[in-house]
Structures are given as C-alpha cells and as structure tokens.
Amino acid sequence: MSDQANQAFQGTYQGEPAVWLKFGKYEAALLPEVGGNLIAFRDTSKGWQLLHEPTMDEMESFKARPFIHGIPVLIPPNRFEDGKFPWNGRTYQFPVNEPSTGNHLHGFVHSETWTVDDFGTTATESYVVVSLKVDEQSAVYTYLPHKFTVKLRYAISEDGLHQHVLVRNDGDDVMPCLFAFHTSVNAPFIPGSSAKDYRLKLTIGDRWAMSERMLPTGEYQPLTENEQLMKGEGVYPFFESLDNHYTAVAQNGRNRMELTDTKNGATLVYDVGTSYKQWMIWNNGATEGFFCPEPQVNLVNAPKSDLPADQIGLFSLAPGEIWEETGRLYVK
C-alpha cells in the first residue's frame, strides 16, 4: 500500500464543497456545508457504494431535505408532538414542519454549515473532524436555546469507516442531549446483485406502538414473523413498508445492523454502540434500492413520555459535561 494512495484533501462532491478521505481500498466524502453529512463510503477496489448517494440531478432536492442520502445528523431526532418540547420547567416551541402529522420532524443541524477543524492522514488512517458551535448567534439557538458544541470525527482505515460523535454543554444550565444518525445504506450495494439477494439483521427488542400521528403510545406491539427474522437470522429488507420504531437490545455485546449479500457472501456491518437506546427503520415504502437503519439515542417524542429517562434515552448534559459515542461501518 503506497502512502500516495492514502490522502485527505478538500475538493468537491457533485459541485458541493467536500473533504475527501482515501485509505487503501476505501474512500469517503463529507459535506461540511450540508450538516456535516458523510455522503459517500466506497470500496473502490470492488466498485461498491455502501451509502445511498445523490446523483447530480438529486443534489438540489438533497440539500433542501437532506435525509435519505449519506449519514445525516439529527438533533433532536424524529418527531415532537405539536412541535412542543418540554424541558426543565420550560417548553420550547419547534416549527411544525410535517403538516400531515402536525409534528416537528428531524431537528435543526442537518442543514447547518459545520466548521472543518482538521483533516489528515496518519500511518493507520485518513480522517476529518468537523464541528458545529451553537450559541446566541446560531440559527439552532432560536429553537434550542442552549450553548453547546457538536463534533464529528470520521476516519477510514483497513477496518472500514469509524464514526465518533461528541456533544459538549458550553452553557450554564442543563441541556437535553437527543441525537440520531439518519443513515442511508444501499441494498444492493454490490453491482450485479439484486435487492432480493439481501438479508437484514438488526438488534431490535420490542416495537413501539405508534399513533396515527406517528408518536409512541408507550405500549409495545408483538413482533411479526418477518420482524423476528430481522432480529434473528435475517430478512429481505423490503418485505413490507417500514417506518417502525424499536427498542435497541444488544446481541453478543454489540448494537448493530448487518446487511448480507447472499449472492456474494459479503456482509455490511453498522455497529453503533450501546448509547443508542432505540432504532428507527425506514425503507421508502418498501422501494428496493436503499433503506435507513437509524440509531437513535431517544424514544420519539421522549420529553412527553412518563417512562424512566434512561429506558427511553432522555439524556441530559450538565454544564461542562460531554456525551460521546462511536460507530463503525465495515464489510466482512
């Protein structure tokens, strides 16, 4: 492996400013001006695109609603009833941006411009660090009035793509720390394979019952036969339309998705760490091509739940405190 092949540099992706990483057989691209989205992760030796990337024609719609390509960052994630977010004796009002449910959806950082703090190559990896600092001058502060910093570090190496997220409370009051990645993976990710060749495993526990407004009722629903397969030996990812919310229950010490191409015997692993108490899974109305296994710290609409905070991932950060978690995408 020559040193020349391993690089980290600023360039463009479909005309958008990007930081590119190359190491061995892998390459990745991050878009600092579109929410710090890790938009591409590829095995160039085999021509595999592991994440769902936008075409040039899709770039404008992607920038307008950057949820179904790459790895968007959601703070706070998913839906909040009537846009209301009760916290610490106050109620924040978020915009109701999903008229069909009357809810707020997906938070405020997915379209912000993040700062490129560092990028480079070492003997073992190529990496990039980006951050978002929220204070009174930030648009995010309008709705989430806390001072905080979010840092993302992505690195590629012979072990695939490593993902590290850190949230630090820079203010003088306790803040909510609700977080998710709206990760979008290709199925198929191998040229010449069919989605029918793919089997999905996900470390789920129970499925939350959801209201007509897509908000959890606090009750669980029994898993179907296909969901039991998803939890066990694997299932075709598009067996029905999925927009489901599950508890996360680690298996063999890990909280992860596994997507296997049975034709080629390759498995994409997305190991996300046990701070993520919930999974969302969305498969675009059972349309083959891609789906989103979304590791989520918190239950949807968590501030309105009476369940124990640790159970539903309703995390808080005191002044000066840090929350962090890691994940990894790799092929075995």
From TrEMBL:
It holds the Pfam family Aldose_epim. One of its GO terms (biological process) is carbohydrate metabolic process. InterPro entries: Aldose_1/G6P_1-epimerase, Gal_mutarotase_sf_dom, GH-type_carb-bd. GO terms for molecular function: carbohydrate binding; isomerase activity. This is Aldose 1-epimerase. It comes from the Bacteria. It comes from Paenibacillus taihuensis.
